[in-house]
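ok so i was messing around last nite and threw this chain in just to see what happens. nothing serious, just curious
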Amino acid sequence: MNSRILTVAGAMVTAVVLAATPALATESVKQTAKDGSAPPSGAPCSVGKGVTVCFQKAGDVIWVRDEQADGHHAVGGWGFGDGETDVWDYECHDYLGPSAGWTRCGWSDTIGESRTITFRGIEFDGSTPKLNGDAGPATGSKAS
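result:
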């Protein structure tokens, strides 16, 4: 019985340690985009040849539109950094393609009030960013 208690206690400690361990800096938090109508008028956008991404401050929504039927999928990448690198902390993946029009991911539980984010559109081939010049420029916006 004592060994069973120790085994259960050990498993609980392991679970707590794993839950408390921060994610590696190279990992991104990913969401799969859902159907959406369109971003609100006046929303800041990053427009590229292959993908357009907009940010809706109210509700902290990233909008993504795949602009090319080329076998790649569009991603709205964003983070709290300066946008000078192509590494993003958060990604909204649009797997629905250009015929779907606008898609969206909600991040209201992630973006704090008055935080500034930087975002841009990126084309992905599977899990690999293409970074082929079709992406839009990094664009910053302050959450409401």
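not much to say yet. DSSP finds one helix and eleven strands in the chain.
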